[in-house]
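Quick look at the format.
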Amino acid sequence: MKVINEFKCTFPAVSANEALARSALSAFLIPADPTAQELADLRTVISEAVTNAIVHGYRNATGNVSVCLRMLPDRMLYIKISDKGCGIPDIPQAMQPLYTSAPEEERAGLGFAIMQEFTDDLRVRSTPDHGTTLIMRRQLRQIHAEE
């Protein structure tokens, strides 16, 4: 896979770093000149993914979240979020709208639904007790010479 640009970082799984991930994505996308809607969608996607890793992946534990952003040819954005937390025992169940593994915390259970809505492709790999990896792709609008 040809990569036009790439950014990687790993940070502690603390809620304050969700803003770091959003900011890193925004800065990474500047050269691509995304629309305001694309930027808002993608900032939401990365927020949901990182928050899931922090809140669900490392429930009552410490660890790190890794982010990899890649701009591929034809303005395809690749986002990979991974953790080495508790994993997801039942991915299809976890991806159901309104499902949450933390009902006592009044979580909405819409994270995966939002990620699916705002990306063109969402893949989830997870192994209980070993962590979860999310891979998302989003095609950015094409820029024409007259723009």
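Next, a different chain entirely:
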Amino acid sequence: MDTTLTLEQLLDTFERYNIDIWPMQIIAYVLGIIAIFFAIKRTKYSDRIIMGVIAFMWLWTGGVFYMFFFGPVYNISYIFGLLFIVQGIIFLAGIFKPLTSFRIRGELFPP
């Protein structure tokens, strides 16, 4: 297994990825804004929505970036991709049984 990676290979992978997934970048920004909105404006489903956004981002990163784009260039990234996917599935479980609360607090140093 080749564990070397050149800067050129890394930058080429980023370039291909960003070109090929267009306009997913815009969707990612929108999802990020939605997560921030629900961290500020609390509703009954805020934590589930935020957890869903996080789960989607983790699954996308593991499945699309690491497995399809980075894997052929750097074999170890398949392991990273698998770990991201497992974490994404764990985050998906948080949608159905939320154990985490997300919120933005206005105090600089919480008690």
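Residues 44-99 form one domain.

See the schema section for token definitions.
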